[in-house]
Design a protein that fits this description.
Strand order of the largest sheet: 3-2-1-6-7-8
Mean pLDDT: 74
Helix content: 25-40%
Structural class: alpha+beta
Radius of gyration: 43 Å
Largest sheet: 6 strands, mixed
Oligomer: single chain
Number of helices: 15
């Protein structure tokens, strides 16, 4: 990352070239504004400075002014204001007798000072000065030489950019270029580039300078391509550098609310009125006047304050069908695979549903299918595709504020393929490849590589035979996890309301005020499965007793066993002895057997509440349940459970 200082020599820049350079600077700031920031404060540091040199007509002197001084976080609004207000009438070229353009001092000594460049950013930050002009100084005098040397001592790089003009008076420009290059050739911190003022050239400059500004730019990824056998001699690998070809940008701008004190967006919970607004910096409560409602987020770190919400539209989710407008035909050979981004989509003709479909709809569907096949066949024969435009990002299925470009590629006899293409703002410059393209390959290396390639198996690509190994890896993890064993079932205390009627399978609806703490024992529940074919009434009674006695064994040390209100629960009459007891009833009776030490005692239980209290206290002396004063004289308690008798309920026939 670096701080860039642009110095424009307005004396030599024509109005048309100056207009193009203004757009270049604005595009650079816009792309930098939507770039993600890796700093902890999530703020985008201001790293662009702007100066210009002009002739002061009043004082008849050459002056340098600072149009924009970077400080703190990026202010996109102020930078746009500075660029748009550059003087447009400062073009005043001076010519020699030979007709060549005369260029005077660019006042670089003022730029390399503590008041301008060295006051921007920290001391250890990288600085770069870019001089944009259409002329060069005739010679590098001692003052300019000392300025450049001093910049080299402070690790400041300087790039001289010359825009060549196709004019008759510039016939001897090459001589001046060679002379200037010779003067700065011994300075490692200086570079010189000449460009034609073309739109494509300016676009490439924007992307190159953007890489200097962004803090997430790293060195290219180093990679090795390893072969199964030696490629040449004892070498079986090629080392390469990997660089991204596309930097995808956002699809639009989103409205937001900001605090008036710092201009920082508020959280989404405040926007949705879930919480009261707080300042993100001080965490102080914000009144209605302290919140700026009309704000727009540009990227993640840049905010613009707007007069209204009309300038921003929330990105909405798109619904089918999506419209793609055909722009032009494109030869597939000219398509750069490096600009393809996102997922690819298989395109097939729509099919109609046979249910509730009229004959006319069936005819239209068949005609649509024939048109699709005809278009696919024609494009394939021409080896061309269709360039399309849409306002929908198919990958996110949301509406975009900007154009999304797609290429529709045909096949011979099958479906077509829809692929997303990067826009001009998203394409990154290609690394310099001239250094190895111009070099020739020795004949022996060529022969060795051709022989080696013939040894590699060649076959049509089939994705089915190229598995990534997902299933074997996951199966191995699961197999290893099974060796750990199963986790014990966690026992949790639950509270149920006891009801005299038959409880539901999921919960017991409350009828009385009695609340019993229960430990659910899944093992005992599994032992008491109902037998098919039993009488429904007997099963109902058995299930009710199972809920009260067998399944709902309270915790021995549960505080709920200390005090329980009276339970109004009737006891069923003895069952018919001739009927054989089912397995579940036998289990219940075994649980209700009187303890051996209490068999000698004879007690007449009165209520079910006393029986439940005895279940709570198997070792400790049973406590008397809590009862009202009116009922305390009438109800007796017992420490012994009652042995219940079951009988079929008789139905009353009316």
């Amino acid at each position: 990352m670096a701080v860039l200082c642009f110095v424009l020599d307005l004396r030599s820049l024509s109005p048309s070239l100056l207009a193009d350079l203004k757009q270049l600077l604005l595009q650079l700031a816009n792309l930098y504004a939507v770039s993600p920031s890796l700093s902890q404060s999530n703020a985008l540091c201001d790293r662009i400075g702007l100066c210009y040199v002009f002739n002061n007509r009043i004082s008849s002197s050459v002056e340098l002014k600072v149009a924009y001084r970077p400080s703190g976080n990026l202010s996109l609004r102020d930078f746009h204001h500075a660029v748009n207000n550059l003087p447009t009438d400062a073009f005043s070229p001076e010519f020699k007798e030979s007709g060549a353009l005369r260029c005077c001092d660019a006042k670089l000594s003022i730029v390399f000072s503590d008041q301008v460049l060295y006051s921007w950013g920290d001391k250890d930050i990288v600085r770069k000065v870019i001089v944009l002009s259409s002329c060069l100084p005739e010679n590098v005098d001692s003052a300019l030489k000392n300025t450049l040397l001093d910049a080299a001592d402070k690790c400041v790089s300087i790039e001289f950019v010359l825009f060549e003009q196709k004019s008759s008076h510039l016939c001897n420009m090459q001589e001046h270029i060679n002379s200037f290059i010779g003067c700065i050739s011994d300075l490692d911190n200086c570079s010189f580039q000449t460009y034609l003022p073309d739109v494509k050239v300016l676009h490439g400059l924007v992307k190159r300078w953007l890489q200097d500004l962004k803090d997430d730019m790293e060195e290219p990824i180093q990679a090795r391509f390893i072969f199964k056998s030696n490629l040449f001699g004892s070498l079986n690998q090629i080392t390469c550098s990997l660089s991204a070809s596309v930097n995808q940008i956002i699809d639009g701008f989103s409205p937001c609310q900001t605090c008036r004190c710092h201009g920082i967006p508020l959280s989404s919970t405040v926007k949705n009125k879930i919480k009261e607004p707080l300042c993100p910096i001080t965490s102080h409560d914000l009144e209605k006047f302290d919140v700026i409602e009309n704000s727009v987020k540009v990227g993640e770190n840049t905010v613009l304050f707007m007069p209204s919400f009309q300038s921003s539209v929330k990105l909405q989710r798109m619904s089918s069908p999506i419209d793609f407008k055909i722009i032009e035909r494109t030869p597939l050979g000219s398509l750069n695979e490096g600009v393809i981004i996102g997922a690819s989509y298989v395109v097939t003709p729509s099919a109609c549903h046979e249910i509730e479909t009229t004959s006319d709809e069936i005819y239209q569907t068949e005609l649509n299918s024939q048109l699709f096949r005809g278009l696919c066949s024609a494009l394939h024969s021409l080896d061309q595709g269709l360039l399309c435009s849409s306002y929908c990002n198919v990958e996110t299925m949301r509406k975009a504020m900007f154009h999304c470009y797609y290429i529709l590629q045909p096949s011979e006899n099958g479906p077509m393929l829809l692929r997303r293409l990067a826009g001009s703002e998203e394409v990154l410059p290609v690394p310099d490849v001239n250094r190895f393209i111009d070099s020739s390959v020795p004949k022996e290396i060529e022969i060795s590589i051709q022989t080696f390639l013939l040894k590699i198996q060649s076959r049509d690509y089939n994705p089915v035979v190229h598995e990534r190994g997902f299933h074997p890896k996951l199966n191995s993890l699961v197999k290893e996890s099974l060796q750990f064993g199963s986790l014990p079932t966690e026992l949790s205390d639950k509270k149920f309301e006891v009801n005299s009627t038959r409880p539901d399978s999921a919960e017991v609806p409350p009828k009385s005020n009695l609340a019993i703490d229960i430990v659910v024992l899944e093992e005992e529940n599994a032992m008491f499965d109902l037998t098919a074919g039993e009488d429904k009434t007997a099963a109902s009674i058995a299930e009710e007793w199972e809920q009260l006695v067998v399944s709902e064994i309270p915790n021995r040390f549960s505080p709920s066993c200390v005090s329980k209100p009276k339970l109004d629960h009737s006891v069923p009459s003895p069952p018919d002895n001739n009927r054989q007891l089912d397995e579940k009833t036998s289990r219940i009776l075994e649980r209700l057997e009187v303890p051996t030490q209490l068999k000698s005692k004879v007690v007449s239980p009165v209520s079910t509440s006393s029986s439940i209290s005895d279940v709570c206290m198997s070792k400790k002396k049973p406590l008397i349940p809590f009862q009202s004063s009116q009922a305390s004289d009438q109800v007796t308690t017992s420490s012994q459970l009652m042995k219940p008798n079951f009988q079929r309920l008789k139905r009353k026939y009316k």
